[in-house]
């Protein structure tokens, strides 16, 4: 599958997730090696208005979404793959006034489960805010949405 098709597929998938629309998430990069999403810094993701620190729940949402959509980078045909398990290890808080990026890759695909790993970061992927590993259930083509709302 071409990188342009992977990018289009991931953008369309992300556009269907209402909470991601509200948060302003967008695809930064997508190819067969993985997916990077951007979570713009805004008041919506701040845990404490005095400090401006990003809420851990916003990071969790970013990374669950990034890992979940990264399955579209690894599969020849799109499948809906709900989260079975997600573990996030926080290294340090996200800094105020800076966007947060999430990168995820699928490192093992089985007939029933897809295993992902990734990082959340701000300025440098080598200085992660958090590490994540996740497992996602494969539902097959029959688990896919139908009609105009289905990502291609």
Describe what you observe in this structure.
The chain is an alpha+beta fold and 152 residues long. The protein has one domain: Thiol Ester Dehydrase, Chain A, CATH 3.10.129.10. The chain is 25% helix and 31% strand. The chain has a six-stranded antiparallel sheet. Keywords: Hydrolase.
Structure described in brief:
One of its GO terms (molecular function) is hydrolase activity. The protein is an alpha+beta fold and 152 residues long.
State the share of residues found in helices, binned by percent: 25-40%
Order of adjacent strands in the largest pleated sheet: 1-2-4-5-6-3
User: By CATH's scheme, which homologous superfamily applies?
Assistant: Hotdog Thioesterase
Tell me the CATH architecture.
Roll
C-alpha Rg (nearest Å): 15 Å
Which spans have pLDDT < 50 for at least 5 consecutive residues? 145-152
What's the main sheet like? Answer: 6 strands, antiparallel
Oligomer: single chain
Calculate the terminal CA-CA distance, rounded to whole Å: 12 Å
Organism: Stutzerimonas chloritidismutans (Pseudomonas chloritidismutans)
Domain Thioesterase: 52-127
GO molecular function: hydrolase activity
Keywords: Hydrolase
Write the SSE topology.
Elements: H1 3-15, H2 18-23, E1 26-31, E2 34-39, H3 56-74, E3 83-90, E4 100-109, E5 113-121, E6 130-137
Antiparallel strand pairs: 1-2, 2-4, 3-6, 4-5, 5-6
Helix pairs in contact: 1-3
């Amino acid at each position: 599958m071409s990188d342009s098709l992977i990018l289009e597929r991931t953008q369309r998938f992300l556009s269907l997730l209402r909470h991601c629309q509200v948060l302003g998430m967008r695809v930064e990069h997508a190819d067969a090696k993985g997916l990077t999403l951007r979570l713009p810094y805004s008041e919506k993701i701040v845990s404490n208005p005095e400090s401006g620190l990003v809420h851990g729940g916003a990071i969790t949402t970013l990374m669950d979404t990034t890992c979940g959509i990264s399955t579209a980078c690894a599969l020849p045909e799109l499948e809906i793959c709900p989260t079975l398990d997600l573990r996030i290890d926080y290294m340090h808080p996200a800094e105020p006034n800076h966007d947060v990026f999430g990168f995820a890759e699928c490192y093992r695909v089985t007939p029933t489960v897809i295993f992902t790993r990734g990082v959340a970061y701000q300025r440098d992927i080598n200085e992660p805010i958090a590490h994540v590993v996740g497992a996602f259930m494969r539902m097959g083509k029959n688990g896919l949405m139908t009609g105009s709302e289905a990502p291609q």
